[in-house]
Amino acid sequence: MKILFGGGLSFDTSSIELREQVAFRSEEYPQALSMMKAMMQLEEAVLLSTCNRVEFFAVSKDPDQASKSWSEFLKVYHKKQLPFELYSHFYKGKNCIEHLFELASGLKSMVVGETEILGQLKEAYLIAKEQGMAGKYLNKLFQSGFAAAKAVRSATWITRGSISVSAVAVDLAEKLFGRLSGCSIMIVGAGAVSEATAKALQKKGGNIILVANRTFEKALSISQEIKAEAIPWSEFPNRISRVDILISSTAAPHYVITREKLAPLMGMRGGRPLFLIDLAVPRDIDPAVQDLDGVYCYNIDDLQSIADQNLKDRLAEVDKCKNLIAPHIERYYQWMIGSLNATESGFIRNFRIA
Hints:
The chain is of the alpha/beta class. The chain has 14 helices and ten strands. Keywords: NADP, Oxidoreductase, Porphyrin biosynthesis.
């Protein structure tokens, strides 16, 4: 009898050191699927490889043997003699359906509710379909899973609210300025988080125009990468009046922006608000600047607190998401039972999926 099953390595069962040994590029999927089919005796298969998991979904008449062959396939394809079987998990029948539908909905992601996994699943499915490896059962399975994910995301808050510091900063900037197109940004210091935050703002239309660092060569290096102007450290206070958003992340043991320094500059801004993002510890920006009209200052704890609350809000939606997914699982399960019984009625009269 044909059995739906799947499994593999994921972030919650294996280390990144192990997963990176068996990662597949999408262009490798066709060759890998062909080898999987032969080694694991599969009738249908979809292979998925992301930074958090290397998994498969398949149909086979002997899923137990195919599961044992999974580790051997990884060893042969990647030429790595590692005990992948010890860190692989497997799902059969209804459990496999549930796993895929929750995965597509972002419930099994390291960052709960993230949407990138849905695009990765769609790409994996389309490649398998092009290779003739997604047939009757996997076609229906994946289409049903995508429909379940769409229902979850349109009826719950599972994807709402940013849960990284840089994304929260972008959200706050958009609330303050509306569209970020045309907003000018200055980076003070050269921390990785500040650079990531600036680039996240840039993706939304913000324009990074100035970079200041105590080591001018470092400022020059960053500015060349993002096509901004590098300025000497001594000049950055006077340039604040030109920008809408300032991201600060220096290693200074004291405030580099104080209320006293900022107050006269605010009068030169024509009433435009100033969004200050302080990512440094110790803080770069005197919290007293909040007393100035038009100044909005958030430090790393403020941003992380918002991100943490957003994550709690997402996790609170998980049960609601699972309730929405349940009828999708049941519909596919009943369709598969009926289809298998119709196809193999003589042999499968007493068929039950695990």
